[in-house]
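Hi U.,

Before I forget, here's the chain from the pilot set. I'm dumping it here mostly so it's searchable later in email.
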Amino acid sequence: MNNGQVSPDILSRSEPTSTISMKFFMPFPAKKSAIMLGCLLVLTGTVAGCLGQGVDTNGVHYALCGSYRIEKFSRQNPAIDNGLFITLEEDGSLRATDLGSMRTEWTAEIGGTAVSGVIARNGTIYLVANPFADTADKQASSSLRSFSLKTGLPVGNIGLTFSDGFYIGSAKGVLITANRSGVLTAIDPSLNSVIWTRDVHVQMTIPPVISDIGVLVAAKGGRIVVIDPVTGEIISDSHFDRSIATAASLAGGGLLFADERGNLERSDSGRTLPLWRFKAGAGIYGVEIDGRDVYAASLDNFIYRLSADSGSVVWRRRMPNRLIAAPLVLGKRIYAAGVGDNEVFVLDSSNGRFLNRISMGNGVVATGSRIISDGNSFAVPVSGGYALFSRNACRSD
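Structure:
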């Protein structure tokens, strides 16, 4: 198994289901007018054959329910919550698609141009938008806006310092926005009040890490600023002799930093030297934390599981292609797809052994970007859009 190959005897597939019509199901580009997506046949908007290719790994079953075409690359990431895939469309609207049936549940106008990704929290969708270009001016403000996850109806909005790009997340029960110039704002989820604003005067090099432990901002020149999500006070302000490729925070206050040379280190508040340092064979661009375990994805094609306490390697697993984002960890299973993979690989988190693989079909390849999930469904970024999987059976309703 060290070569990253998976034997055919661990593959499984569901029985064919009936033909259904889907208005918003769109195939990915292919040389022929019809392509195979696993055992899913797409032909002029109609889905037939083995809808919902099943993969059962020790009681964990996910079905490939369809694909979602996105015409243009966008930095505005989608979200998944309660089985709904929430996307920002090219025309500026917000759309919710049921991952089980692939039906559009609702669409909504956001009343401006989205300048952030989408997040969903406690039945509410949040994003940052700017006024339309023909009405905006330099004095206009950006605004954080909220919508009902169930209906798509607008709920509220609040003004922010104007910027053409934002990151958004939540920590300690509050919403955190950060613009590219280093202005961070904490806002009540009801959007009734601003709790604090902090300008750290940096140009961000990677998206901030927004967690209950702290809001970590990495800037040019190796500067790292960590901010308390409750008070907005600066917890630490450090400088490193290299650029940070990815970062993560640990429960208890530990911080993890990785660079393009494959160095990963843990640095805790108050320490002048790192608690430990790990060296991979190439750059590390994705780190996922699960309790006291660290999962690092490296350009040397390996996924490493490390101890958060000591930095020792618990196991490592070579993958077929390069990994440029952290794998998805769901309980005892890990889901990963590298650049160019046409399969999602399922690993046992305890020992790194391959359990299964899920085909995404001929002509469909992963971009290597981060898989998004709500715990019961997940979406894999692929060429032209996303491959959508549901833990529940795919439906025709």
